[in-house]
Amino acid sequence: MANKHEIEQFFRELQDEICTALETTDGKARFQEDLWTHHTGGGGRTRLIQDGAVIEKGGVNFSAVEGPAGEDLKRQLEIDFNADFFATGVSIVQHPNNPLMPIIHMNVRYFELSDGTYWFGGGIDLTPHYVDDAQAQWFHAQLKAVCDAHDPAFYTQYKKWADDYFYIKHREETRGIGGIFFDHLNEGSLNKSKDEIFAFVKAVGQTFAPIYTHLMKLNGEKPFTEAQKEWQYIRRGRYVEFNLVWDRGTKFGLSTGGRTESILMSLPKEARWFYNHQPEEGSEEALTLSKFKKGIDWV
Amino acid sequence: MANKHEIEQFFRELQDEICTALETTDGKARFQEDLWTHHTGGGGRTRLIQDGAVIEKGGVNFSAVEGPAGEDLKRQLEIDFNADFFATGVSIVQHPNNPLMPIIHMNVRYFELSDGTYWFGGGIDLTPHYVDDAQAQWFHAQLKAVCDAHDPAFYTQYKKWADDYFYIKHREETRGIGGIFFDHLNEGSLNKSKDEIFAFVKAVGQTFAPIYTHLMKLNGEKPFTEAQKEWQYIRRGRYVEFNLVWDRGTKFGLSTGGRTESILMSLPKEARWFYNHQPEEGSEEALTLSKFKKGIDWV
């Protein structure tokens, strides 16, 4: 049965593979690495790519931290006993230069407590500035294929979870076209072994690079207008709003002494806010907005 | 004794006076007004000024809303009985074009419940992109004078409250050079009558226009460099972080169905994030950062 060292090792190598794939496809920029340690034990490798040919700003972060569970964590876990925790994962956000190229987010993670409880979590979701229906369909079909290979119920369930999670409540918009999201996966919540669940999480992690490099090749060099760039800045503003107001991981990390610069690698280089901006009726921008709704069956 | 109608009327007129003062001093842009209604009763006048000679984007909002206290509000108030609420106030944030000109925030507000409890709250704080010591001292001296005219204990107490409130915990920085902040002022928390407290809140509201128009005249036309503009975008990013991650009013408003565009008028037109940006040692930017600490005695 996979132990924490094997899982950590897989995530570490996944970070390497993804960084290599993104660098190769971008062709211009290289990841810069920062190593850091956590105050209770372990640490991470934060990797940032900036000002690439396709990627304007992107992070691919690996971490494996451990130590005694503090009060904030115990409250979040709803436990009243002392325990040591171990948490490892890979987190990715990529903001492209081109407004016709989507933002992507991926996370795979594993958590365990010294009392023997553990779970996996993760997901991938796509935030196009302009929705391309064919690409949206293709993206969801890729995720469905990964899910279906492990359980025929996963895609429907985790697609709905993503719709509910990546929701900007105060805008009544989803962050983008969603994807999949899952958490607390273990033998207790699924009729599967730990190794089977790990195999699914591995497959999700490994599907990131082929998906996003494909989208980079399709969209990275498309010509675009100033008005499309402006719309990109506005959509990035919504991305900032989601991450800072609603994303539980970001909020928990920032309020419990996580490494701020690693957490906030998710923010774009540049975002804009205009008071009460409304796209023109019938415009491409309005059409995109109409697709940032829960429950759209993309496949 | 001042009743809610008089207080609302004062705030409504304060909004008019402040908008006139800012428009006159800016000399170029005009406020645009949106009237809105709240789903339980009352409403507001949101006023935005954009692309002025000095102000790039600023809001001066008045609201007076009422109705039955909902579950979120009851939880926040820690009451377990049904009651009607009434809330009125003026909220201001101004983001200037010039990086040598500070951002300002002001809020004065009044809240009452149908069981007879009420309180006032408010404050003014300044967020320079570059701290000018003389102006910082002058700003705090203005606030101290307003406080001292009403109670010799107010300034010290409310200055500390602002330091603690406008704190970006995950950056270990204050948002700017602070100012004053106060909440839950009433006969129970202060040895003063309701009219005396209202007189103090009025004075705070009325000191906004002379303070900020003076700073506009001093700084609005100063020459600046591209590097200073870039630093301004970075500091605005911190402003966004504070407002979306830590500001209780913003979080409460966004999660309880407040008017999103009125609440988020506080966000700048444009903000930027660079991974792990550190100003050069000894630079003006580093010097400014060193002053975003709690407990500096500016006066």
Characterization of the model:
2 copies of one chain form a homodimer. Chain A is built from 9 helices and 10 strands. In chain A, helix 1 (4-26) packs parallel to helix 5 (194-219) and helix 3 (133-148) packs antiparallel against helix 5. Chain A has 299 residues and is an alpha+beta fold. The first copy, chain A, has a 7-stranded antiparallel β-sheet with strand order 1-2-3-4-5-6-9. A two-stranded antiparallel sheet of chain A has the order 7-8. The longest helix of chain A has 26 residues, at 194-219. Chain A has one domain (4-289): oxygen-dependent coproporphyrinogen oxidase (3-Layer(aba) Sandwich), CATH 3.40.1500. The two termini of chain A are 34 Å apart. In chain A, strand 5 and strand 6 (118-127) form a beta hairpin. The first copy, chain A, is globular and about 55 Å long. The model of chain A has no long low-confidence stretch (mean pLDDT 96). Chain A binds chain B through residues 32, 34, 48, 50, 57, 59, 169-171, 233, 237, 240-241, 244-245, 251, 254-255, 258, 260-261, 263-265, 267-276, and chain B through 32, 34, 48, 50, 57, 59, 169-171, 233, 237, 240-241, 244-245, 251, 254-255, 258, 260-261, 263-265, 267-276. Strand 10 (270-272) of chain A pairs antiparallel with strand 10 of chain B, so a sheet runs across the interface.
Write the layout of secondary structure elements.
The structure is a homodimer of 299-residue chains.
Chain A: H1 4-26, E1 32-37, E2 42-50, E3 55-68, H2 71-77, E4 84-96, E5 103-113, E6 118-127, H3 133-148, H4 154-165, E7 167-168, E8 173-174, E9 178-185, H5 194-219, H6 226-246, H7 248-255, H8 260-263, E10 270-272, H9 284-289
Antiparallel strand pairs in A: 1-2, 2-3, 3-4, 4-5, 5-6, 6-9, 7-8
Helix pairs in contact in A: 1-5, 3-5
